[in-house]
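Hi R.,

Here are the chain sequences for the assembly we discussed:
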Amino acid sequence: DAGVIQSPRHEVTEMGQEVTLRCKPISGHDYLFWYRQTMMRGLELLIYFNNNVPIDDSGMPEDRFSAKMPNASFSTLKIQPSEPRDSAVYFCASSPRAGEQFFGPGTRLTVL
Amino acid sequence: KQEVTQIPAALSVPEGENLVLNCSFTDSAIYNLQWFRQDPGKGLTSLLLIQSSQREQTSGRLNASLDKSSGRSTLYIAASQPGDSATYLCAVRQAGTALIFGKGTTLSVSS
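And here is the predicted structure of the full complex:
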């Protein structure tokens, strides 16, 4: 298995633009997580899905952020409109039930 | 609310030394605990997973222990090497939640 796949690896955009981050989890994993990492706050959960259903989105900062999981092999995290304070590394991870979480390589987002 | 603390925040050791990284958590009701390694500008690599019913896990020169009742875990690295230089993150998982991370310990091993 190729592991968790994320795209793009790097994204530079201007304030106000829409940003879409993509994730393909490991086949057979029924949990998918989106995390954000910043120097100030470390790694924080944004949202997670179980069997494609959002379970906990309490970490989503505000309505500008949205996430979907239309099927077991694909998820998106969208920011609209983007702001400079959204600059961070966004990680997607997947796991089997209560099992080991595997992380993707991350998307480094810079909002100018 | 679960909080995870890692001490020390940074550690420098000479090559060959054995070392221990510490992790503590405030709520002992966890499913599992996972140790990760993160190299600068890179993603997270899972090192060891300890289920709540287990006391320790070993992989090569790494040994992780878990004392749920006291809310502590340690990561022991034997015979450290310059290639071990990285940030080590501890994270716990509880029922109905995702991983909650500590801020990490940045390790530097000099040759």
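Residues 34 and 49 of chain B are 4 Å apart (CA to CA). The mean pLDDT of chain B is 95.

Let me know if anything looks off.

Best,
T.
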